[in-house]
Structure formats: C-alpha cells, structure tokens
C-alpha cells in the first residue's frame, strides 16, 4: 500500500491506557457514504420516468445510480485518495449536468434546449452530491486528524443517516419533478401512489365493468402509455360520462392504431401552443379564471366552426387547450376537443380508448365559467346559467394517471404532472 493511501485510510488506535478510539476521518467518510447512498436511491427512483422521456436519459440515471452505489460501498470497505478523487470527479460532473439542464436546457433528447424544471427531489439530490464533493475535498486537503471515543463513532453517522432518510422521504412524498406521482386523493380515497402500485401489480390491467384490458400503447407524448380509461378513478363531482352505458369493449387493432395516431397527431399539431403567447395570438382565450392551478382556453372561432358543422376532432384547430400553472410558468397539459351543443357528434376513433365526458355543475356566462353549483351553493351568480356542457375529450401531454386519453384528473395531479416535463418559458395562464 502506498504512503498516499496510508494517509487516507482511517485507522483505529488503542492507547496503552484509556478507552478505545477511532479517527475523525473514519466518521467523516462514513457520513459521506450515507449521503452518497441517498443520491443513488434517488437516481434509481427516477430512472424509469427518464427512460419514458428518452432512452439516453434513462441510461444516464441508471449508470449514475450504480456508480454512486459502488462508491458508497468502496468508501466503507476500501478508502483511499483515489476514491476521494473519484468522488469529487463523479459528483462534480453530475452537478454540472444538473446546472446545465436547469439553465441552458437539454443538450440532446426529444426537446433540446428546453429548460428542465427544478423540484425538491432533484434539488436535494444535487445538494447531497455537492456535500460529497466538499467532504472529499476536505479529506484530501486537511491532513490533521484526531481520535475520538469509539462509542461516539456512531453518533455522527446515525444523525446523518436519520436526517438523510427524512429528507429522502419528504422528496419521495412531495413528488417533485420526475419523482413519484402526486399523492392527491382520487375518487374513493385512493391515492395516486396506491393506484400506481395496484396497476403495477396487475401489469397495468384496468377493470371497467366486466371487461378487462391490459392495453398499453406507446406514443410520442410524455404522458405515458395509452391505456383503457377508468372513469371510476378519474370522475370528479359534477362530471359524468357522455354516454351513460359503460364503454367496456376491448378496442380492435385498428382502433388501437387510431388512438395512437390521434394522440401523436394532436401532440404534433399542439407543439406551437406550448408557447402561451402563440396560443393567445391564435385566438385562444381563458374560459376559467386566470391564475387558477389549471386554466382552460377556448378558441371561439374553432368552436363556432364545430357548432356550424365543422369537424369535431381536428388536431390543427382544437377547440380548447388546457394549461397548468407551475412555479416556472404555464405548461401545456392537454388538448381538449369539444363537440357542438345539443348532443353533437362524439366520434371515438379509438373505440373505448377515446371516451367523452360532460360537466353538470358549471355556471356559465356565454362560454366562460364563472362559478360552480353545489349543495352548499345551489345557485349560479347573476347573469350566468347552469346546464350540461357539450361533450369533451382530452388528449393529455403530461403524465397524469391513465395516460394520454384519461378522462380527467384533479387539478393538483395535473399541476404535479406538468412540473415533471420541460416547457418553454411562459407567464401565468
């Protein structure tokens, strides 16, 4: 073993008299190993979502996680100066990638130059990595060392471990960008995390009446795979399916291809509307209050065209766009197709993969929503009326539960999902 390695390797000493002791450097390295382990856990947790976004991103996350886990083990079993230098280089590189993607934007991938959002989970991971860099640098530079009582050896690592696990738990529950799904309540008190676990256990099989479907269809959006809509999971108060009879028929191969085509074409034609300014310039106006978590925009011209007999599903001229207000600005969350009033056509190119819903509790003044009726407030504001809306169908571009053709989702889920995707700089919708 070289003299350099001896200078780094922690050694326990036993004086001729007095208690057993251990070097401070041993404790410091143990704490760094714990912090490095937390970064590996976070990268393992987000690798799946990054694979859905772009395979290179997923590979990067997995390789990073395994390198950090390997470094953790080596820090405990084979400490050396080379190990400390590798800790600095590895984690500095990862921090550098994070800074670039949060300032300049993605260098490669499906949406180059889009600035990635900041979230608690990824921010915490970066702080942990910076701590590893600083800790390794300190161990390389500071040659001084001192012994402490062996029974005190576990105090600092235990504290570091407890604090790290607490912060990691908060990150996972918080569900920041590209972390786990939001824990918002769904109908029946089921959380998104519980639903996701149920879906994974059943290989994404969804129950609808007496029919089962394990359909999962890849597409070009970041909303995940297309699956059979589950109204029981997504229907909120004041919503109901446009057709009272449950749609449970397994889609044909042609309908599955049509659903994928609808989602892909809708996403392609909606790219220009990722810019809120472009949507406004095209004539879209908010019909729900600006500044709310989720804001619906309608293009009166396109809606009028539909009322006058034009196409109901026209990706080039969608009647409505849905934006989610995130801490970094508005994010295009969905295209929403609207049929004409008085039971207009509700085409289902994807069969039961493409289903329509209506709202029964909205107070409308023209096409603008000005309130909601409820048991506590059963009347609408003066000048507005409550009636069943025309049927609507979403195509989602953010990863809400159920995928791109999900019936709907609570506002909180939509915002959390929007935080997980990159987007151009927008103001508040």
Q: Quick check: average pLDDT?
A: 82
Fraction of helical residues? 40-55%
Structural class: alpha+beta
Q: How many structural domains does the protein architecture include? A: 2
Can you lay out the helices and strands and say which pair or pack?
Blueprint: H1 3-8, E1 12-13, E2 21-23, H2 24-53, H3 55-77, H4 81-103, H5 120-141, E3 147-149, H6 155-174, H7 192-201, E4 206-208, E5 211-213, H8 231-234, E6 239-241, H9 253-270, H10 276-281, E7 285-286, E8 294-298, H11 300-307, E9 320-326, E10 329-338, E11 357-359, E12 362-365, E13 368-372, E14 385-386, E15 392-396, H12 411-418
Antiparallel strand pairs: 1-2, 2-3, 4-5, 6-11, 7-8, 8-9, 9-10, 10-15, 12-13, 12-14
Walk me through what this model shows.
It contains 12 helices and 15 strands. It starts with a helix and ends in an 11-residue tail after the last helix. It is elongated, with a radius of gyration of 27 Å. 41% of the residues lie in helices and 14% in strands. Strands 7-8-9-10-15 form a 5-stranded antiparallel sheet, sandwiched between helices. Strands 1-2-3 form a 3-stranded antiparallel sheet. Strands 13-12-14 form a 3-stranded antiparallel sheet, with no helix packed on it. The protein is of the alpha+beta class and 429 residues long. Helix 5 (120-141) runs antiparallel to helix 6 (155-174). The relative contact order is 0.11. It folds into 2 domains: 3-174, no CATH class; 189-418, no CATH class.
Outline of the structure:
Helices cover 41% and strands 14% of the residues.
Tags for this model:
429 residues; alpha+beta; 2 domains; five-stranded antiparallel β-sheet; three-stranded antiparallel β-sheet; 12 helices; 15 strands; 41% helix
